[in-house]
Design goal:
- The protein has 15 helices and 27 strands.
- It has 2 domains: 187 residues, Beta-galactosidase, Chain A, domain 5 (Distorted Sandwich), CATH 2.70.98; 379 residues, Glycosyltransferase, CATH 1.50.10.10.
- The protein is α+β, with helices and mostly antiparallel strands.
């Protein structure tokens, strides 16, 4: 299974943790009880790291889709014997308390299988391998199920009939006639907690129905976008909701770790954390495709987690979904990696990099929520003022930039731009921040940053704004000059930059690279695919610059790579067109939403958010 295409997977979420399901209905990734917890199943990274499959003995073909308005997955499998359907979901539990603590969530994977034409013989194999495949659990039979013990928790597998237990593996074979169904569940409990009894067949069926209803209720209440690509935008909103950690409002960058940016390469990172960098991009997407409540929760998480940092040094760029600061990186040598792409990492070594852009991203997020925030509490005001002061004091320093390069720090244009954004937004919110006395100093510094960007960020040789001061190398992050309002998108320099990126920073498919890796800027070996977020940025800039037909073409190029259930990874392989990188990627879906919105606004001459 570690050789299957990344796009062959679909996402399940209970807004605490995530699972991936292959096209033929096998669970190849599941972390309990949080997105960043150790895996229970990880066959996407190594065939020996656990999975849970239902298969007919004869070859099958399958089609799948999410149940309308939900993140419950329906997979229809056709074999020589007949047809059966799988219905999979992570149980949402009681939604009456939106801030319930993580330990009170069900932490239960629900699976239903039904026969629509048959009879069909099915073989079930459940092979839990906790702790990223290190642990072969001990299996013990209980009423209507089996308990797997090993690692930091216990797993209760609810079954409709007795099963064979051998070598840490649970096997069943059964036959279903047309109209018959059976239900299965896997529940995780911590060591020391009372062991729950197995779910009954009726309880699993009811939990599946309730989970679907709760997703649909959320979609019906919160999703009102009615512009072009409506279904893609709404689905992306649900994906962002699925990638959010309910107890805190944090949004993970992706549900996985170490899915590579190049097959066989070393660019394999753990994305199951929440980046400050994502805040302002995500805020707008949540407003368009979800609702302001989710945006407010994400902002609240970011300010609470980041407030423990010292802005006079540098603001931490990412946090654990519970607000944790230490995300030290380590390797998992027992896992061979997707298609042999090693090393497999957990943690992320970029957590303590200096990245000056985060000041602007947090203040821009506050600016987007300024009406909803109303009277800002004193501690938050002091923190936001300190961010503006830090941007003013540090903007001339080199840093590692938005792309978290592991090479030498540089004077990246995007980092300087976001320091300008920090001051620009602080000035606009001065009354709300009770900081009118700071406006003159902030304005002078913002003007200095602006003049420096215009002088040193533009490169005559490249005919464009470039990656770093006094460098001819292109970087798609320069597209943000107009997106954040530094220059209008109609400015000839902005459009010249967009044209240069289209001419020299795209692949044969017209998709955009972040930058050219052969420049050595990132200190890593190998290459990477095109970056979907950057392609959506290009569509967004062209739309707001009045070139809406071109914007539509570029947008359609990007969304042509969604998989059969509307999901996007981080990158696209330029040679094969395959999805690459961690999956599904919040940034890609954020870019989709914001670009669709920009095109809709440009075509209808409406005000932007």
């Amino acid at each position: 299974m570690s050789n299957l295409p990344i796009a062959d997977h679909a996402l399940l979420s209970d807004r605490h943790s995530a699972a991936l399901v292959t096209r033929d209905g096998s669970i190849s990734w599941l972390c309990f009880p949080r997105f960043d917890s150790e895996s229970v199943f990880a066959s996407i990274l190594d065939d020996d790291a656990g999975h849970w499959s239902f298969r007919a003995p004869t070859p099958t073909t399958s089609t799948r889709s999410y149940v309308e308005g939900s993140m419950a997955l329906q997979t229809i499998c056709q074999s020589d014997e007949g047809t059966f359907e799988l219905l999979d979901a992570l149980e949402l539990g009681d939604s009456s308390d939106p801030h319930r603590l993580g330990e009170n969530a069900p932490h239960t994977l629900l699976r239903g299988i039904s026969c629509t034409s048959g009879p069909v013989t099915i073989e079930m194999v459940c092979r839990p391998r906790p702790e990223y495949g290190l642990v072969v659990p001990v299996l013990a039979e209980i009423d209507s199920g089996i308990v797997a013990t090993g690692g930091s928790g216990r797993l209760t597998v609810s079954l409709p009939a007795p099963a064979i237990r051998r070598d840490g593996e649970i096997r069943m074979q059964f036959t279903l006639e047309a109209g018959q169904q059976q239900y299965f569940a896997l529940q995780r409990t911590r060591l020391g907690e009372p062991l729950p009894g197995a779910y009954s067949q009726e309880a699993i069926e009811a939990a599946l129905a309730a989970t679907i209803a709760r997703w649909q209720e959320w979609s019906n209440i919160h999703q009102s976008y009615d512009g072009p690509w409506r279904e893609l935008v709404h689905h992306s909103g649900r994906v962002l909701q699925a990638l959010s950690y309910q107890p805190t409002g944090a949004i993970v960058a992706a549900a996985t770790t170490s899915l590579p940016e190049q097959i066989g390469g070393e660019r394999n990172w753990d994305y199951r954390y929440s980046w400050v960098r994502d805040a302002s991009f995500t805020m707008k997407a949540l407003w368009v495709a979800a609702c302001p409540d989710e945006a407010h929760e994400f902002f609240g998480f970011m300010t609470a987690a980041a407030a423990h940092s010292n802005p006079d040094r540098h603001l931490q760029i990412m946090f654990g979904i519970g607000g944790e600061h230490d995300l030290s990186e380590r390797l998992l040598p027992q896992l061979s990696g997707w298609r042999g792409s090693s090393p497999v990492r957990v943690g992320n070594g970029a957590w303590d990099q200096p990245q000056l852009d985060v000041y602007g991203e947090l203040l821009d997020a506050a600016f987007r929520l300024r009406e909803q925030l109303g009277e800002i509490e004193p501690a938050t005001r002091i923190f936001l003022i300190a961010l503006a002061d830090a941007a003013a004091g540090q903007w001339q320093q080199p840093d590692n930039g938005i792309w978290e390069v592991r090479g030498a720090p540089r004077h990246f244009l995007y980092s300087k731009l976001m320091c300008w954004v920090a001051l620009d937004r602080a000035i606009a919110m001065a009354d709300q921040l009770h900081a009118v006395d700071r406006v003159a100093e902030w304005s002078a510094m913002a003007a200095q940053i602006r003049a420096t960007i215009l002088e040193k960020g533009w490169n005559d040789e490249a005919g464009a704004f470039t990656q770093a001061f006094d460098s001819p190398d292109l970087d798609a992050a320069a597209l943000m000059l107009s997106i954040v309002g530094f220059l209008p998108a109609s400015d000839p320099r902005v459009l010249a930059t967009a044209d240069a990126i289209m001419d020299r920073l795209t692949d044969a498919r017209g998709l955009v690279y972040r930058y050219q890796t052969d420049s050595g800027v990132d200190g890593l070996t190998g290459n990477e695919g095109t970056f979907l977020l950057c392609t959506f940025w290009l569509a967004q800039v062209l739309a707001t610059g009045g070139r809406t037909e071109e914007a539509r073409v570029i947008f359609e190029r990007a969304v042509s790579h969604v998989n059969d259930v509307g999901l996007l990874a981080e990158e696209i392989d330029s040679d094969t067109g395959e999805q690459l990188g961690n999956f599904p990627q919040a940034f890609s879906h954020v870019g989709l939403v914001n670009a669709a919105w920009a095109i809709d606004q440009a075509e209808n001459h409406q005000h932007k958010i």
